[in-house]
Amino acid sequence: MNKSIICIIKPLLLLYGLLAMTFASALEVGDMAPDFSLPGTDGNTHQLSDYRGKQAVVIAWFPKAYTYGCTIECKSLADNGDKIRQYDVTYFMASVDPLRKNRGFATEMEADFPLLSDEDKSVAKAYNVLSVLGVAKRHTFYIGKDGRILAIDKNITPATSAEDMINQLEQLGVAKRNQ
Question: Cα–Cα distance between 98 and 102 in angstroms, integer?
Answer without folding.
Answer: 6
